[in-house]
Amino acid sequence: MALVHTPSRAIDPTVAFLIAAGTVLLALLTLYLVGFDQGAISRSGMYMHELMHDGRHLLGLPCH
Ligand SMILES: [Zn+2]
Question: Which of 4, 19, 44, 55 fits as disulfide partner to 48, beta carbons 3.0 to 4.6 Å?
């Protein structure tokens, strides 16, 4: 016996694409802030660098 699930309402492909694109952009922004920001783009001085410093070393990203 096979069970077939047919959702009553399919997700619009455009909405699914926008959600996926937003998730990827947010992930890339987080990766940048944790791994590579030195304050030049975020305009936070070294605050963001120092905040993420241990995580940067934990991930093995170049730091100092
Ligand atoms: Zn360091």
Answer: 44
For residue range 19-49, what is the model confidence (pLDDT) as tens digits? 999 999 999 998 888 888 877 777 777 787 8
The Å distance, Cα 26 to ligand 1 centre, comes to 24
Instruction: Read off the pTM.
Output: 0.64
CA 40–ligand 1 middle distance (angstroms)? 17
Structure tokens, 5: 């699930």
Q: Nearest Cα to 63, choosing from 32, 35, 40?
A: 35
